[in-house]
Amino acid sequence: MSFTIEDHKASNRVRVIKFKEADLDRLIFPFKKHSILSLEYKPFSRFSLAKSLDEVFENKLSETLIKILNDRNTGTVIVEPEIKNKKFDKDFLVKLSTGLAYLVGNPNFDSMTDKYYARFHVKHQDSSDSYLRKAYTNLDLHTDGTYVNEKTDWLIMTKMEEQNVSGGESVILHLDDWEHLDDLSNDPVGQQNFTWGSPKSKNVDYKVEHPVFTKDKNGKPTISYIDQFPEPKNMEQGLYLQKLSDALEESKNKISFPLPVGSTIFSNNYFWLHGRKAFKEHTGLSRELLRIRGTFFN
Known about the structure:
By secondary structure, the protein is of the alpha+beta class.
Protein backbone atom coordinates (compact mmCIF):
# COMPACT_ATOMS: atom_id res chain seq x y z
CA MET A 1 0.00 0.00 0.00
CA SER A 2 1.82 3.07 -1.22
CA PHE A 3 -0.65 5.85 -0.49
CA THR A 4 -0.24 7.69 2.80
CA ILE A 5 -2.95 8.55 5.33
CA GLU A 6 -2.73 11.32 7.90
CA ASP A 7 -5.01 13.60 9.87
CA HIS A 8 -5.84 16.95 8.32
CA LYS A 9 -4.14 19.79 10.15
CA ALA A 10 -7.53 21.46 10.74
CA SER A 11 -9.29 18.42 12.25
CA ASN A 12 -8.55 14.85 13.25
CA ARG A 13 -12.01 13.92 11.92
CA VAL A 14 -10.74 14.53 8.38
CA ARG A 15 -8.32 12.08 6.80
CA VAL A 16 -5.89 13.08 4.05
CA ILE A 17 -4.86 10.44 1.51
CA LYS A 18 -1.89 11.35 -0.66
CA PHE A 19 -0.98 9.71 -3.98
CA LYS A 20 2.61 9.93 -5.21
CA GLU A 21 3.41 10.83 -8.80
CA ALA A 22 5.05 7.44 -9.38
CA ASP A 23 1.80 5.66 -8.52
CA LEU A 24 -0.25 8.02 -10.65
CA ASP A 25 2.11 7.19 -13.54
CA ARG A 26 0.96 3.60 -13.25
CA LEU A 27 -2.60 4.76 -13.91
CA ILE A 28 -1.89 6.54 -17.19
CA PHE A 29 -1.96 3.37 -19.31
CA PRO A 30 -5.14 1.77 -17.85
CA PHE A 31 -6.88 5.16 -17.82
CA LYS A 32 -6.15 5.65 -21.54
CA LYS A 33 -8.30 2.60 -22.26
CA HIS A 34 -11.33 4.66 -21.29
CA SER A 35 -12.24 7.89 -23.06
CA ILE A 36 -14.44 10.40 -21.27
CA LEU A 37 -17.17 9.58 -23.80
CA SER A 38 -16.99 5.85 -23.10
CA LEU A 39 -17.22 6.51 -19.36
CA GLU A 40 -20.34 8.61 -19.94
CA TYR A 41 -22.01 6.16 -22.34
CA LYS A 42 -20.94 2.78 -20.91
CA PRO A 43 -21.46 2.55 -17.14
CA PHE A 44 -19.61 -0.77 -16.84
CA SER A 45 -16.41 0.93 -18.04
CA ARG A 46 -16.40 3.00 -14.83
CA PHE A 47 -16.12 -0.16 -12.73
CA SER A 48 -13.18 -1.33 -14.86
CA LEU A 49 -11.46 2.01 -14.38
CA ALA A 50 -12.08 1.92 -10.63
CA LYS A 51 -10.62 -1.58 -10.39
CA SER A 52 -7.46 -0.37 -12.14
CA LEU A 53 -7.16 2.38 -9.54
CA ASP A 54 -7.61 -0.06 -6.67
CA GLU A 55 -5.06 -2.50 -8.09
CA VAL A 56 -2.37 0.17 -8.18
CA PHE A 57 -2.80 0.40 -4.41
CA GLU A 58 -2.92 -3.37 -3.80
CA ASN A 59 -6.74 -3.32 -3.46
CA LYS A 60 -6.44 -1.40 -0.20
CA LEU A 61 -7.82 1.95 -1.38
CA SER A 62 -11.45 0.81 -1.63
CA GLU A 63 -11.33 -0.72 1.85
CA THR A 64 -9.82 2.44 3.30
CA LEU A 65 -12.33 4.79 1.67
CA ILE A 66 -15.36 2.74 2.69
CA LYS A 67 -14.14 2.44 6.28
CA ILE A 68 -13.46 6.17 6.69
CA LEU A 69 -16.64 7.36 4.97
CA ASN A 70 -18.87 5.09 7.06
CA ASP A 71 -17.20 5.92 10.37
CA ARG A 72 -19.28 8.51 12.24
CA ASN A 73 -16.10 9.74 13.98
CA THR A 74 -14.48 10.62 10.66
CA GLY A 75 -16.55 10.49 7.46
CA THR A 76 -14.48 12.82 5.26
CA VAL A 77 -11.42 12.08 3.12
CA ILE A 78 -9.38 14.63 1.22
CA VAL A 79 -7.49 12.98 -1.63
CA GLU A 80 -4.38 14.89 -2.68
CA PRO A 81 -2.69 13.52 -5.81
CA GLU A 82 0.77 14.75 -6.75
CA ILE A 83 -0.17 16.15 -10.18
CA LYS A 84 2.14 19.09 -10.84
CA ASN A 85 3.22 17.49 -14.11
CA LYS A 86 1.14 18.51 -17.14
CA LYS A 87 0.63 14.86 -18.12
CA PHE A 88 -2.10 14.81 -15.46
CA ASP A 89 -4.68 16.88 -17.29
CA LYS A 90 -8.38 17.52 -16.62
CA ASP A 91 -9.42 14.28 -18.31
CA PHE A 92 -7.14 12.45 -15.88
CA LEU A 93 -8.85 14.19 -12.96
CA VAL A 94 -12.31 13.22 -14.25
CA LYS A 95 -11.13 9.61 -14.47
CA LEU A 96 -9.50 9.69 -11.04
CA SER A 97 -12.66 11.11 -9.48
CA THR A 98 -14.74 8.50 -11.30
CA GLY A 99 -12.49 5.75 -9.98
CA LEU A 100 -12.78 7.01 -6.42
CA ALA A 101 -16.57 7.14 -6.66
CA TYR A 102 -16.97 3.65 -8.10
CA LEU A 103 -14.78 2.12 -5.40
CA VAL A 104 -17.48 2.89 -2.82
CA GLY A 105 -20.80 2.97 -4.66
CA ASN A 106 -23.01 4.01 -7.55
CA PRO A 107 -23.23 7.68 -8.52
CA ASN A 108 -26.64 9.26 -8.98
CA PHE A 109 -27.70 10.71 -12.32
CA ASP A 110 -26.94 14.43 -12.18
CA SER A 111 -29.87 16.21 -13.86
CA MET A 112 -27.97 19.48 -14.09
CA THR A 113 -25.65 18.00 -16.74
CA ASP A 114 -27.41 14.76 -17.80
CA LYS A 115 -24.38 12.72 -16.72
CA TYR A 116 -23.21 10.77 -13.71
CA TYR A 117 -21.10 13.82 -12.80
CA ALA A 118 -21.30 17.58 -13.17
CA ARG A 119 -18.61 20.09 -14.11
CA PHE A 120 -19.23 23.78 -13.56
CA HIS A 121 -17.37 27.10 -13.28
CA VAL A 122 -17.44 29.87 -10.73
CA LYS A 123 -16.51 33.14 -12.46
CA HIS A 124 -16.42 36.91 -11.92
CA GLN A 125 -19.72 37.48 -13.71
CA ASP A 126 -22.71 35.25 -13.13
CA SER A 127 -26.36 35.18 -14.19
CA SER A 128 -27.29 31.79 -12.74
CA ASP A 129 -30.23 31.04 -10.45
CA SER A 130 -28.24 29.32 -7.70
CA TYR A 131 -25.75 30.28 -5.00
CA LEU A 132 -23.49 27.55 -6.40
CA ARG A 133 -21.91 29.95 -8.89
CA LYS A 134 -22.13 33.23 -6.96
CA ALA A 135 -18.44 33.97 -6.46
CA TYR A 136 -18.74 36.89 -4.07
CA THR A 137 -21.36 35.39 -1.77
CA ASN A 138 -20.76 32.72 0.86
CA LEU A 139 -22.09 29.32 -0.12
CA ASP A 140 -23.64 28.48 3.24
CA LEU A 141 -23.37 25.10 4.91
CA HIS A 142 -25.60 22.46 3.35
CA THR A 143 -25.91 18.85 2.27
CA ASP A 144 -26.53 17.62 -1.27
CA GLY A 145 -29.48 15.82 -2.82
CA THR A 146 -32.14 17.58 -0.75
CA TYR A 147 -34.43 18.11 -3.75
CA VAL A 148 -34.24 14.71 -5.53
CA ASN A 149 -35.91 11.34 -5.01
CA GLU A 150 -32.62 9.43 -4.94
CA LYS A 151 -30.69 8.75 -1.76
CA THR A 152 -27.45 10.71 -1.51
CA ASP A 153 -25.07 8.89 0.82
CA TRP A 154 -21.86 10.60 -0.20
CA LEU A 155 -20.46 13.50 -2.17
CA ILE A 156 -17.27 14.10 -4.17
CA MET A 157 -16.04 17.60 -5.06
CA THR A 158 -12.83 17.87 -7.10
CA LYS A 159 -11.10 21.17 -7.83
CA MET A 160 -10.18 20.92 -11.51
CA GLU A 161 -8.61 24.33 -12.05
CA GLU A 162 -8.52 27.87 -10.71
CA GLN A 163 -7.12 31.22 -11.84
CA ASN A 164 -6.86 34.60 -10.12
CA VAL A 165 -8.37 33.20 -6.94
CA SER A 166 -8.11 34.66 -3.46
CA GLY A 167 -10.52 33.42 -0.82
CA GLY A 168 -13.08 30.79 -1.67
CA GLU A 169 -11.87 28.41 1.04
CA SER A 170 -13.77 25.19 1.66
CA VAL A 171 -15.91 25.17 4.80
CA ILE A 172 -17.18 21.97 6.44
CA LEU A 173 -18.89 21.06 9.71
CA HIS A 174 -19.34 17.68 11.37
CA LEU A 175 -22.85 17.40 12.77
CA ASP A 176 -21.60 16.07 16.12
CA ASP A 177 -19.39 19.14 16.60
CA TRP A 178 -22.26 21.58 16.07
CA GLU A 179 -23.14 23.39 19.28
CA HIS A 180 -26.88 23.48 18.54
CA LEU A 181 -27.39 19.90 17.39
CA ASP A 182 -29.44 18.68 20.37
CA ASP A 183 -31.68 21.74 20.42
CA LEU A 184 -32.50 21.84 16.72
CA SER A 185 -32.52 18.11 15.90
CA ASN A 186 -34.94 17.44 18.76
CA ASP A 187 -37.24 20.33 17.86
CA PRO A 188 -40.49 18.76 16.55
CA VAL A 189 -40.54 21.23 13.63
CA GLY A 190 -37.24 19.86 12.32
CA GLN A 191 -38.86 16.43 12.16
CA GLN A 192 -41.84 17.63 10.13
CA ASN A 193 -41.97 17.09 6.39
CA PHE A 194 -40.74 20.14 4.46
CA THR A 195 -41.33 20.69 0.75
CA TRP A 196 -38.09 20.96 -1.25
CA GLY A 197 -37.90 22.38 -4.76
CA SER A 198 -35.03 23.58 -6.94
CA PRO A 199 -34.24 26.34 -9.46
CA LYS A 200 -34.60 25.75 -13.19
CA SER A 201 -30.87 25.14 -13.70
CA LYS A 202 -31.15 21.87 -11.75
CA ASN A 203 -33.48 20.42 -14.42
CA VAL A 204 -35.65 18.66 -11.84
CA ASP A 205 -39.36 19.14 -12.55
CA TYR A 206 -40.77 17.73 -9.31
CA LYS A 207 -40.68 18.52 -5.61
CA VAL A 208 -40.00 16.20 -2.69
CA GLU A 209 -40.98 16.15 0.97
CA HIS A 210 -38.77 15.12 3.87
CA PRO A 211 -37.73 16.38 7.32
CA VAL A 212 -34.52 18.29 7.99
CA PHE A 213 -33.51 15.77 10.67
CA THR A 214 -33.87 12.01 10.83
CA LYS A 215 -32.00 9.27 12.73
CA ASP A 216 -29.44 6.75 11.52
CA LYS A 217 -29.51 3.04 12.45
CA ASN A 218 -27.75 3.87 15.72
CA GLY A 219 -30.27 6.56 16.65
CA LYS A 220 -27.92 9.47 15.93
CA PRO A 221 -29.16 12.56 14.06
CA THR A 222 -28.67 12.94 10.32
CA ILE A 223 -29.41 16.08 8.33
CA SER A 224 -30.70 16.91 4.85
CA TYR A 225 -30.70 20.68 4.36
CA ILE A 226 -29.80 23.53 2.03
CA ASP A 227 -30.97 27.09 2.58
CA GLN A 228 -32.17 27.92 -0.95
CA PHE A 229 -34.49 24.98 -1.63
CA PRO A 230 -36.98 24.44 1.23
CA GLU A 231 -40.45 25.93 0.77
CA PRO A 232 -41.85 26.48 4.27
CA LYS A 233 -45.57 25.84 4.58
CA ASN A 234 -46.21 28.19 7.49
CA MET A 235 -44.67 30.68 9.92
CA GLU A 236 -43.48 27.88 12.22
CA GLN A 237 -41.43 26.22 9.49
CA GLY A 238 -40.09 29.52 8.15
CA LEU A 239 -38.86 30.68 11.55
CA TYR A 240 -37.35 27.26 12.27
CA LEU A 241 -35.33 27.40 9.04
CA GLN A 242 -34.06 30.88 9.89
CA LYS A 243 -32.97 29.68 13.33
CA LEU A 244 -31.28 26.65 11.78
CA SER A 245 -29.44 28.73 9.18
CA ASP A 246 -28.21 31.24 11.74
CA ALA A 247 -27.04 28.49 14.11
CA LEU A 248 -25.08 26.72 11.39
CA GLU A 249 -23.36 29.82 10.04
CA GLU A 250 -22.49 31.11 13.52
CA SER A 251 -20.93 27.81 14.63
CA LYS A 252 -17.43 28.18 16.04
CA ASN A 253 -16.61 24.59 15.09
CA LYS A 254 -16.69 25.04 11.32
CA ILE A 255 -13.47 23.96 9.61
CA SER A 256 -12.08 26.23 6.89
CA PHE A 257 -9.15 25.46 4.58
CA PRO A 258 -7.95 25.92 0.99
CA LEU A 259 -8.29 22.86 -1.24
CA PRO A 260 -5.30 22.36 -3.58
CA VAL A 261 -6.00 22.16 -7.31
CA GLY A 262 -6.51 18.54 -8.31
CA SER A 263 -7.63 17.51 -4.85
CA THR A 264 -10.94 15.92 -3.92
CA ILE A 265 -13.19 16.23 -0.87
CA PHE A 266 -15.04 12.95 -0.35
CA SER A 267 -17.67 13.17 2.43
CA ASN A 268 -20.50 11.29 4.05
CA ASN A 269 -23.56 13.39 3.20
CA TYR A 270 -25.59 12.56 6.32
CA PHE A 271 -23.40 14.01 9.06
CA TRP A 272 -21.06 16.42 7.26
CA LEU A 273 -22.22 19.79 5.90
CA HIS A 274 -20.14 21.69 3.35
CA GLY A 275 -19.92 25.20 1.95
CA ARG A 276 -17.50 27.80 0.63
CA LYS A 277 -16.31 31.23 1.65
CA ALA A 278 -16.74 34.16 -0.71
CA PHE A 279 -13.95 34.99 -3.15
CA LYS A 280 -12.17 38.31 -3.30
CA GLU A 281 -13.28 40.20 -6.38
CA HIS A 282 -11.15 39.81 -9.52
CA THR A 283 -12.33 40.24 -13.13
CA GLY A 284 -10.28 37.21 -14.21
CA LEU A 285 -11.52 34.91 -11.45
CA SER A 286 -12.27 31.36 -12.57
CA ARG A 287 -12.63 28.06 -10.74
CA GLU A 288 -13.80 24.78 -12.25
CA LEU A 289 -15.24 22.06 -10.04
CA LEU A 290 -16.39 18.49 -10.60
CA ARG A 291 -19.18 16.95 -8.53
CA ILE A 292 -20.23 13.32 -8.10
CA ARG A 293 -22.79 12.17 -5.54
CA GLY A 294 -24.30 8.77 -4.95
CA THR A 295 -25.04 5.77 -2.76
CA PHE A 296 -22.90 3.12 -1.13
CA PHE A 297 -22.87 -0.40 -2.52
CA ASN A 298 -25.15 -2.69 -0.54
